[in-house]
Amino acid sequence: MNARIEDYALIGDEQTAALVGKDGSIDWLCLPRFDSGSCFARLLGDEDHGHWRIAPTGADVCTRRAYRTDTLVLDTEWETADGVVRVTDLMPQRERAPDLVRIVEGVSGRVTVRSTLRLRFDYGSITPWVRRSDGHRVAIAGPDSVWLRAEPAVHTWGEDYGTHSEFTVAEGERVAFVLTWHPSHEKRPPLIDPYEALESSVTDWRRWARRCRYDGPYRDEVVRSLITLKALTYAPTGGIVAAATTSLPEQPGGVRNWDYRYCWLRDSTLTLGALLSAGYHEEAEAWRDWLLRAVAGNPADLQIMYGVAGERRLREIELPWLPGFAGSTPVRIGNGAVDQLQLDVYGEVMDSLSLARSSGLPTKPHMWAMQRSLMTFLQSAWRQPDEGLWEVRGGRRQFVHSKVMVWVAADRAVKTLERHPELQGDLEGWRGLREEVHREVCEKGFDRKRNTFTQYYGSRELDASLLLIPRVGFLPPDDPRVVGTVDAIRDDLAHDGFLRRYDTEDSVIDGLPSGEGAFLACSFWLADALHLTGRTKEARELFDRLVGLCNDVGLLAEEYDPVDGCQLGNFPQAFSHIGLVNTALILYGEDQAG
Hints:
With 594 residues, the chain is α+β, with helices and mostly antiparallel strands.
């Protein structure tokens, strides 16, 4: 098993994604969607839970690897005593079925290469029946069918419940493998040309990357983050998953292992802002439209997350046959937080739709009626305690961030009516709600002795989400309460120069054992807050350190362990890459973004 999360690179087709290790092994792939059962789960177990490794015989990790510039096409090279060989991995955008393409190319000398494919459906629990058909290997079990072919054909045999190939490539010679999934009750889909797929993938990704309007410092890292967000998008609906994986631990050997292959409303405003600012209006509109479809219905039933097509039932279960990454159990699929009450999502939805309207995205006929309905519910429900932004499992509280986001909902509703008087709504009632919430937060959520807002009413704990107070406009950046909060959070939640979400060592709010890494999105928020409060030099220094945490191909997980120097949590994490994009835009000015 690859020992570090950052050993992986991502490839995908905007409907699912695979993780490729430095040893040439694809250790995670769910088919046909991000949230489907995996056919490779070595990431969370061992080789017998499914993987596909292509590498020179006797070789360990690669000599070097990199994405082709401004694409999601990965080149991995090994230098051996016999020569140099390159493996190019990609998942072309699908027309009908998902395809995984692996092209082996001789760069110099003559190198013998070994391919070992172990398919295990349903998260490593089902070994398929494999047979030959028309020169292909066909693996079938239940609803899943996978076809494997090589062009040109190479020596292939079955052994130890795996499919093995061995061949030699000289300089300029190529062998292409194509793995194709389809429902087992359907006919095999049309074959793709792997070399045409490579050429078109490179062209399409580079054409898309050229649309980025940002041209300031760290442009390569910003573009890589935007490509990663695009790769985490479920193209048929426009939904963006939080990460490509489930159960990568926030602490090695710990229990904070969650399924992030779903779409969170909490990410909506920051995602929309990043896409719009960088010039990706089509993607922003698709995300906005996914949001409208997902939240349609009774406002009292609004969820914090949905499936990639807007599904609501995401029941959390444990998979006891998987030992977990670095022994971190339980391995979970589904997410029980779907049933939580998080009042902040109402603010995030209202803020997103307000941003979409003000940015010129085409409005939808039912959009304002839905917003009015959300506000009507919020007027009667906002005083309730909730589980908060971090989805705590230790009981509901009056979280300050949640109340601030209620204020955001009211503020955006008021401003929308003020800018568009032709719309109908309870303007005076919403103004009253905005004033009442603001007054209560400042009275009950602020510690005057320490000059800082707190995690929840009456507490002494702090929370990194409070760094968003100036960004959402609740108070101006130069307000002494804002400056005091930024300073207190930086002092109390610091983790070797980065930032934790909150103190898990002494707190009981999340109902879990203590321990997690520095939360990368929060560290980007700190850079934003430092800049807004006039400390731009410190903000840029922090941003530089954060960018330095990207792995060798520019990817970030959810968290970082400064002590062991490794990434933690699900990977790659949309929230982290959204933070990188937005902070670059904030620090280096709108004049650098079109």
